[in-house]
Design goal:
Blueprint: H1 2-10, H2 19-25, H3 35-38, H4 53-64, H5 74-81, H6 83-88, H7 91-102, E1 108-111, E2 127-131, E3 134-145, E4 152-158, E5 167-173, E6 179-183, E7 194-205, E8 209-210, H8 216-252, E9 254-255, E10 258-259, H9 264-292, H10 301-314
Parallel strand pairs: 1-4
Antiparallel strand pairs: 2-3, 3-7, 4-5, 5-8, 6-7, 9-10
The protein binds flavin-adenine dinucleotide.
């Protein structure tokens, strides 16, 4: 990725469609490393005894080092959108998507946020109304990472009344009639592939329901835990990069007859940056350890919420 990224950014391009295939060929699995996924990767890329959360931590850190948004964007989105299908989806739903995504042939995005709803997931407005063997889906989804490359969406919709218990997840073919995907300009980077998706009377087979009706909010909350670790690892690498660049500059740049790095105030600032970066690294490793020890995702909520705060305050 690294030799090409600057060019992609300069030209306002996105990752090439072959990204995941090429990553896999290079031995980098991009659809997650949970136990249910890793047995489906080519045996030659799985280490003896299987991957654990520390392999994942190192891999995510290295991918984040490749440049802005790399890991959080198209490179990481399959691993964030696929888990609900894996842990809640029926065999029929899994058969539509899992093998192809793991093999890097197809992509899946996670479509939750809307123009009027972000943090408050329980208030989403997109609706799915049952009509015979189909759901008719209407609504808008905003900030959807990789939407332009996605073959499928893990889509949050309202199938019931107000609040968390009215939300369900559907696996949606992103090429369905009635779906419009537009690239969104952002301050972040073009490679991230941020999109705005409009769903206008989209017919989704009822069999594409992920898990049970009304359980979508619970599935999303479970899924957010691991996603928070992924994002915290990236935040840590991005922060470390800022620290390293600042240090280089402070050593090079001279003011009042000496390098910036020799001024006490600047030394304090650099030490403070490094303190935060290392504390975040420790937190990431603590959470990774719990995943390695197979603490179920349902019990990781508070740890991952604290990690999210720690990562946000650091980066
Ligand atoms: C890089 C990037 C990629 C993304 N990718 C995806 C994606 O793939 N799929 C997807 O569905 N979404 C995606 N999102 C959207 C993301 O999930 C939302 O931005 C996030 O949930 C916040 O929602 P919001 O932006 O609407 O802010 P809001 O929820 O409207 O919040 C606005 C501000 O109010 C604060 N706030 C909110 N609630 C409270 C409260 N109770 N008390 C005090 N302060 C509060 C927030 O911290 C924030 O500062 C992405 C966002 C980014 C930045």
């Amino acid at each position: 990725i690294q030799p090409y990224l600057e060019g992609w950014l300069d030209r306002g391009e996105v990752y090439p469609a072959s990204l995941h295939l090429r990553a896999l060929a290079a031995g980098v699995p991009t659809a997650g490393l949970s136990r249910d996924v890793q047995s489906r990767y080519p045996a030659e890329i799985v280490p003896e005894g299987g991957f654990d959360a520390f392999h994942e931590l190192i891999m995510l850190d290295e991918i984040a080092a490749s440049g802005p948004g790399g890991q959080l964007g198209q490179m990481g989105i399959n691993s964030m959108a696929l888990p609900p299908v894996l842990f809640a989806g029926s065999k029929q739903v899994q058969d539509m998507v899992v093998e192809d995504v793991i093999a890097g042939r197809k992509n899946i995005s996670l479509a939750i946020s809307e123009p009027s709803v972000g943090s408050d997931v329980a208030s989403i407005r997109a609706t799915a109304v049952r009509d015979g063997d189909f759901y008719l889906v209407n609504g808008q989804k905003k900030w959807i990472t990789g939407g332009h490359m996605a073959d499928f969406l893990t889509l949050a919709v309202r199938t019931g009344g107000a609040g968390a218990k009215g939300i369900s997840l559907l696996l949606v073919d992103n090429k369905s009639a009635g779906i419009d995907v537009r690239k969104m300009p952002t301050q972040f980077d073009t490679c991230h592939g941020t999109t705005f998706i409009t769903l206008d009377n989209v017919k989704v087979p009822a069999g594409n329901l992920i898990g049970e009706e009304g359980k979508g909010f619970k599935y999303l909350m479970i899924n957010f835990n691991h996603e928070r670790l992924v994002i915290a690892v990236a935040a840590c690498r991005f922060s470390r990069t800022c620290y390293a660049e600042s240090l280089k500059y402070a050593v090079r740049r001279k003011t009042f007859g000496k390098a910036l790095a020799e001024h006490q105030m600047i030394r304090w600032k650099l030490a403070e940056m490094l303190r935060l970066v290392e504390a975040l690294q420790d937190s990431n490793e603590r959470v990774a350890f719990q995943y390695k020890e197979a603490v179920p995702d349902e019990r990781m909520g508070s740890q991952c919420a604290l990690l999210k705060v720690m990562a946000s305050k650091t980066f």
